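Incident log, structure service

09:12 report received: a user says their structure output differs between two submissions of the same chain.
09:20 pulled the input from the user's history:
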Amino acid sequence: MKRILLASALTVVIYGAATAQIFPPGYFGIDGIPVGCGPVFTEVHASLPDIALAVPAGMGAPPRILINGPMFASLPTGVKLFIYAHECFHHITGPSEAAADCYAVKLGRNQGALSLPVLQQICQAVFFSPGDWTHFPGPVRCQQMLACYHTP
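09:34 re-ran on a clean worker, output below:
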């Protein structure tokens, strides 16, 4: 209860009219499951250009994971946990999307949150993506995640 009150107290106005809920490290949860990423803050926004983004520390701001609240809320729990772990990985090691996917898959698998059916849901979500300058096309990305799932 204390955590929810603290987190709710940190709702702020950002970029004019847009609001965000800001959760200090250790105060964010996904569908009742506490999650964290070391010293990284989590911000839930009403609108973002992507479902989630990793933002490094800079200009006095701490490192953050930004989440598009409406998009994120519509996903199954396992997919949300994968996305959060993927963004967290960027803060731990760096910008590699393939490495972040693999880390998130292995972490989820090892913690029991990511089963093959959940990985299939993730693959369905990315399969038709043509890719971009940082992400492989959906089918390649899915093949790589499956390979990571089956690798110790």
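09:41 both user submissions now match this output. Likely a transient worker issue. Closing.
09:42 reviewer note: The chain has six helices and seven strands. Residues 77-92 form the longest helix (16 residues).
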